[in-house]
Amino acid sequence: MTIYLSYDQETLDTQYSPSSCVPDITVYMTEYAQRSAAARERLDVEVGVRYGQRPEESFDLFPARDPGGPLLVFVHGGYWQEVSKNESAFMAPDLVPAGVSVAALGYGLAPAYTLPEIIAMAAGGIRWICANLDHLPGKPGSVYLAGCSAGAHLIAMALLDEVGWRRTGTRAVDAVAGAILLSGVYDLEPVARTYVNAPLGLDTATARACSPTHHLGPALPPLVVARGEHETDEFGRQQREFVHAVRALGGDVTDLVARSRNHFDLAYDLGRPGTELGDATAKLLGRREKRRAPHGVEVSEGSTTDGIRDLHGRGIDGQRARELGNVTGEPRIGVGGRDRRG
Fold this sequence. Notes:
- This protein has eleven helices and twelve strands.
- It is α/β, with parallel strands linked by helices.
- Helix 4 (115-131) crosses helix 5.
């Protein structure tokens, strides 16, 4: 029986099972944890910086050496029910030596929290970081956001929360310099019809209220919207329709399908020059015009389309990044049983 578009229940469940496209999801879960632990060991880090009262409302901050550079806030995926900030710093060893601070944002998960509560937590954390840049180690000068899967959804919802931004006296387009949305889900109606919904308990009205596609407006920062080549048709459709809707409202969007990448290894490329996502990230981070850093020193940001650059404009290639502490080598390809977790 067809329950959504042309899909029956089993097929729709598979469409929203990113792990159906990889041999073994546990390979990536293990690598996230190992690489993030190595980042905490090798880089300066402030663990558990609090942005709220709940125990999950904190982030780990990896400051760059020099003040005034960009800060990338990473929001992890896991279908709002798995993973944590502890496994979400794997890109820091690529970015921090290049002058980009990294914050791995934590938030509560289902079923302990409802999806509206999770959205509010993540949005509150992002706004808190934007409002407190001058007080953070490294004194970053601008905020960029990046998230994969559920993390991309949470970032989109945070950017669209006009009421929340008004409470802080600003707008998302003014506080956030750009955002990178990886393998996101932007319309939750089909998700609510799958196995994913068991711990979420979304009804039709809540799914719509929590869908970025239904709340789009013109005041968004520049976006990179990307997915891997090896993802399901529904993740492709979600991206195409979201990009089309944002562009129809005048939004600035880079639409990217990364060759040879999947739902789980795409984020490894965030800070890797020479990759499609790494170069798009570098270009986004290099787009801002001359600005004044919090400590009063003018910083001129030029184009970084040839890869991430440090604050002195020197390009950092992959070999140099490894010398400076890169622990994120190419992902291993695993084999084994199939798990449908997203």
